[in-house]
Amino acid sequence: MKPLSLETPYPEADGLSPDAYSLRIISPAYASPTGELNAVLQYIYHSYFFRRNKKIDEAKTLVGIAISEMKHLELLGETILALGAPPVYCQNPYSCFSFYSAKYVAYSRSLKDMIVDDMLGERHAISSYSGMLKRLQSERVKEIIARIAEDEKLHLARLEEIYKTL
């Protein structure tokens, strides 16, 4: 199986200080309808259907992407905590409103639609992380977000390969 994350190490959140500005910018990437938590659940859900349809390599790729997204979730959670808020599964950890709900997972039924949903999710993530990088002032937080964004580009490329085979 082709790699699903870069070989370069992830930057660490250790040493970051509370920073409400950075926190507001990156929090939606954690547990919003389009965040990393949703991506993890969606890839696992979609992998079941690929496995059931004897698309074993594709199912393994989706699980591999989910594992990469779990690492992103972990890194964002650690960053949110270092920036001064508990990593609660909601869009804005300061207010704890709009808690995450699994209703945001794309519950498509056809394999092709699933991959289209996953590609849309990766494109949205890449765009969101790009926008964050333009607004962030903390170089350390930028390093974390930029590293995650590079994985998302790799995920999109793998999904596009799967799409071509369906």
Could you give a short description of this structure?
With 166 residues, the protein is mainly alpha-helical. Helix content is 64%, strand content 4%. The protein has a single domain (20-165), classed as Up-down Bundle (Ferritin).
Main attributes?
166 residues, mainly alpha, Ferritin, two-stranded antiparallel ribbon, 6 helices, globular
Number of domains: 1
CATH architecture: Up-down Bundle
Considering the protein shown, what is the CATH homologous superfamily?
Answer: Ferritin, core subunit, four-helix bundle
Low-confidence stretches: none
Tell me the helix content. 55-70%
- Give the class from helix and strand content and strand pairing: mainly alpha
What can you tell me about this protein's structure?
The protein has one domain (20-165): Up-down Bundle (Ferritin), CATH 1.20.1260.10. It is 64% helix and 4% strand. It has six helices and two strands. It has a two-stranded antiparallel ribbon. Strand 1 (90-92) and strand 2 (97-99) form a beta hairpin. Helix 3 runs antiparallel to helix 4 (56-82), helix 3 (36-52) packs antiparallel against helix 5 (111-135) and helix 4 (56-82) packs antiparallel against helix 6 (139-165). The protein is globular, with a radius of gyration of 16 Å. The mean pLDDT is 95.
